[in-house]
Amino acid sequence: MTEIKNLETYDPFEDVEEETKTKTSVFKPIHLRVKTRRGKKKITTIENLSSEFDLKMLIKVMRKKFCCSGSIVNDERLGEVIQLSGDQREAVAEFLIEEEITTKKGIKIHGN
Prior knowledge:
single chain; alpha+beta; Translation Initiation Factor Eif1; five-stranded mixed sheet; 5 strands; SUI1_dom_sf; SUI1_euk; Eukaryotic translation initiation factor eif1; protein biosynthesis; SUI1
């Protein structure tokens, strides 16, 4: 009689699944929101930017590119948040994609 050997199962995608699990657990989309202040004045907020980026340099470039004022605010719940004057959501989204900071799927635009 022939002997049947117990063959080990081999999953060629095992390594890939582990890599994607670690990447997706860390992934947070960047949120772009607009808040209305007094009357017609609006502020755009940018949340969940990775800590690997220099926020001071980013805001300096954004101020020049969008011709607006801006600041970095430290929020207890959200961490460091960038605030820009005016409704800059679409412009910021294009900027983040052009500079390869994130992809189109990694941006959530909130508001009207």
